[in-house]
Amino acid sequence: MATKKEISYKEAVTEIEEILEKIENEELDVDELADKVKRVSALITICKDKLHKTESEVEKILKDMNG
To answer: What number of other Cβ atoms are within 10 A of residue 40's Cβ?
Structure first.
């Protein structure tokens, strides 16, 4: 089973911005809207996970430096 390439934080933020712009400009029809809102939700979760992981790594590095 092929695993999907992990999206970067920057790619996720860019995709969120693109989707929000389409929503604001009313470029999406009702059928697309639900799918795009689900996608934004998933992307936000990815971003939050990446931020949390990065924060933990930075805290560990700082703790090791002060060790």
So the answer is: 17
